[in-house]
Amino acid sequence: xxxxxxxxxxxxxxxxxxxxxxxxxxxxxxSGERATGKIPWDVEDRLGRIAGVEASGGIASVPIGxxxxxxxxxxxxxxxxxxxxxxxxxxxxxxxxxxGHVVTGRYFDAGHDERADRVVVLGERAATRxxxxxxxxxxxxxxxxxxxxxxxxxxxxxxxxxxxxxxxMPVGTARADFSLTALEQAxxxxxxxxxxxxxxxxxxALDPNNPDTIEVQVPAE
Length: 221
Fold this sequence. Notes:
Layout: H1 2-16, E1 19-24, E2 26-29, E3 32-35, H2 43-48, E4 53-61, E5 69-70, E6 86-90, H3 94-97, E7 101-105, H4 110-115, E8 119-123, H5 124-130, E9 140-143, E10 146-155, E11 166-170, H6 171-178, E12 185-190, H7 195-206, E13 214-217
Parallel strand pairs: 6-11, 8-10
Antiparallel strand pairs: 1-12, 1-13, 2-3, 4-6, 4-12, 5-9, 7-10, 8-11, 9-10
């Protein structure tokens, strides 16, 4: 039992020691907290130039308003009400940065992002709720009256387990269809021991003119 516990502890420490979270700094106002910084759209390219970063990606919640998410275009008033899955937008590298893996299909790439293609990836629990179990026949889901092709289903996501219940689309698509204005976070997987270097270099890489507006959470040395 002690040997098993030791193995679990070492594995947990290895995961925790390679996780970095980046967020804009905030300030308190009368109406609540307001972001004083901004994570750039090309966050993956900027973080990828720093030694020690193995994978990175940005993420933001998508404001869909009153739109509903369904797997069929016909509204059935007699159907039982379902909680609407969260819709998020990510850059292509986020899957690796949060230790996710593809169950079926694929994750979107930089081409989907640049073209603002109407494609989505579903977290495994969201796929079950929407009745999507395979993607070889190019199933679609509807966000409001817009159809989005489901190209993959993902699992894992040990660093963002909430994404298992989410509909995930490219950032470029969210900007074109829902006027997404900013990324909320960036995640990175780093080499063990690179935390102190990242803490110093990430703010400068993301906003060289105002590095104080970027907050970085890194593992202890």
